[in-house]
Amino acid sequence: MTLGARFALGRLFERLTALAAALIVLALGVVLVDVLRDGVGVVSWRFFVDEPGAGPTEGGIFPAIFGTVALTLVMTIIVMPLGVGAALYLHEYASPTSRLAGLARAAVHHLAGVPSIVYGLFGLGFFVHALGGALDAATGQALKWAQPGLLWAACTLAVLTLPTVIVATEEALRAVPSEVRLASLALGATRAQTLGRVVLPAAAPGILTAAVLAVSRGAGEVAPVLLTGVASWLPDLPGSLSSQFMHLGFHAYVLATQSPDVDAARPALAGTVAALLVLTFLLNLVAIVLRARLRRGMEAS
Amino acid sequence: MEPVKVRIEGLEVHYASKRALHGVHLEVNTNEVLALIGPSGCGKSTLLRALNRMNEVLPGVKQRGSITLEGDRIDQMDVVELRRRVGMVFQRSNPFAKSIFENVAFGLRIAGLTSTSELAGRVEQSLVQAALWDEVKDRLGDSALALSGGQQQRLCIARALAVQPEVVLMDEPASALDPIATARIEELIHELKTRYTIVIVTHNMQQAARVSDRTAFLYMGELVEVGRTETIFTNPSMKRTEDYVTGKFG
To answer: Does residue A297 sit at the B interface (CB-CB below 8 Å)?
Structure first.
């Protein structure tokens, strides 16, 4: 091959990679434009703050927004301590030859590949029936916890997002140079002090990234909550952790497939999807701003 | 004052599969600078880390023999107490992602010191001793990571001094620095030995000759020779030492 041909091949390859990158932007653009164009008619203030009306095209979607936010928050509260704890064990405590750590890592990788509806079935069987049933039996209540509800849906989503959190947190811990751990130990710090005062603060922005990833993943998943707590039409907001709730993703599914007149439901559908996208975006934004502040704070102080 | 600060007897260290040190007998005197020299892999860093039990951090390390600090066996000491008495400065500067002040105060805080005025006093004193105070006194709240390489290393020295150790271990403390920063660290070592006992590992023959009172030459995990630094460099008793210090191998 001549030198010219080799350079041409190199340029061609560069263009192909640029094309691949452009395709991603294009895909996002198409989704956004499509959704916003259809939704613009219904996306009024009232649509977001009203409760749903009698039919799918009437009223607003506030309970679905509230349900999605509540679900995502409870999920985050459950998954972060578990995921960060597991990552700390795997990366900081377990020896490289540890049996438990090997099994846990394999489990993380396999969990990440399980289809999300399987999580839904697992949540129904384990959280709702087994755990909820035991809780009811223990507290002498009939069917309070042994039915789908916010807590169980959040638990199911927490299991689903656990691998994401563990992998991202381990990545953050790995980015903390081992020299600073040694420096801390050499100053007479115990292992726990080293973790709490040196490693975790240095890894905090990365751990927040883990939370962002979990939130984005969790807020958009429908299949796992389908069987564990979501309701298709429920004007009341969830009053407790055992309440059922509406969910934007599921609401979009209902509007698209369960409505008697699919065409009439189109604007509401687009509005719902727009709300879901904006919500995910906002949750991401909050986490990103937090992370940026943390980083700045660390460099400054 | 006890003239012998640290006494090493029959020290043997094994990593998972290989023997890193074998039959080492060595004494470190109070307020002297002892240099450990030898080719890469001779065990000099392992010997240094044995003195504050940092080898225990590495998996699969086995150790035999006895090391005493002022007559007390260090393997029977509380490791936190030992590391407070025997401080360490690493090859590459490794400040925490915290402010200059908090870096120096770290060891004091984990030891339970909370009084703000006392902390401030000890931080200043340590920075003065590490010849860094004048350069940073107006920006103690700034991130330590913004300092230059040489300043970071002096900060790490200040951090080690803050807990008022008796012995300071230095693992090639200037190997990543430029000549000017290196010269400052060497001057500093000279000043520090009036208060501290210093054991320094170095690859640099001239540095060993400049900073140390006595020099120990290690080769293949064994202590070949130890003596006054002038003697080791000008009139060593072992052929192997002479070959190494004159640059025939290394």
So the answer is: no
Please measure the distance between the N-terminal and C-terminal CA atoms of chain A and give it in whole angstroms. 57
* DSSP H/E element including B234: helix B229-234
Q: Name the H helices within chain A.
A: 3-39, 45-49, 62-88, 99-112, 116-122, 132-139, 150-174, 178-186, 191-194, 200-220, 223-226, 248-257, 262-300
pLDDT band at A301 (very low <50, low <70, confident <90, very high): very low
* Closest to B219 measured CA to CA, from B198, B194, B231, B236: B236
CB atoms within 10 A of CB A271: 25
- Residue A32 CA to residue A24 CA, distance in Å, equals 12
The per-residue pLDDT for range B78-119, each reduced to its tens digit, is 999 999 999 999 998 899 989 999 999 999 999 999 999 999
pTM: 0.80
Under 8 Å CB-to-CB from A97, ≥6 apart: which residues?
Answer: none
Closest C-alpha to A47, from A64, A61, A65 = A61
For residue A143, the Cα-to-chain-centroid distance in whole angstroms is 29
Interface test with B, best of A95, A181, A185, A187 (most B CBs within 10 A): A187
Q: Which CATH superfamily is domain A40-300 in?
A: MetI-like (1.10.3720.10)
Give chain A positions within 8 Å (CB) of B92.
Answer: 179
| Chain B residues near any Cβ of chain A (below 8 Å) | 52, 54, 57, 59, 79-81, 83-84, 87-88, 90, 92, 94-99, 102, 106-107, 109-111, 141-143, 145-146, 156, 159-160, 163
pLDDT band at B241 (very low <50, low <70, confident <90, very high): very high
Q: Residue by residue, what is the 3-state secondary structure of A154-168?
A: HHHHHHHHHHHHHHH
Residues of B in contact with A201 (CB under 8 A): 97-98
The beta-carbon neighbor of A180 closest among B96, B142, B146 is B96
CA A239/CA A57 separation, integer angstroms: 25
Q: What are the pLDDT digits (tens) for B111-127?
A: 999 999 999 999 999 99
Residue A185 has pLDDT above 50, yes or no: yes
Q: How confident is the model at residue A231 (pLDDT cuts 50, 70, 90)?
A: confident
Q: What is the ipTM of this complex?
A: 0.89
User: Residue A300 is nearest to which of B59, B90, B143, comparing CB atoms?
Assistant: B143
Q: Tens digit of pLDDT for each residue in B118-161?
A: 999 999 999 999 999 999 999 999 999 999 999 999 999 999 99
User: Is there a contact between A189 and B110 if contact means CB atoms under 8 Å apart?
Assistant: yes
Which distant-in-sequence residues (6+ apart) come within 8 Å of A131 by Cβ?
A145, A152
Q: How many angstroms away from the CA of A58 is the closest CA of chain B?
A: 55
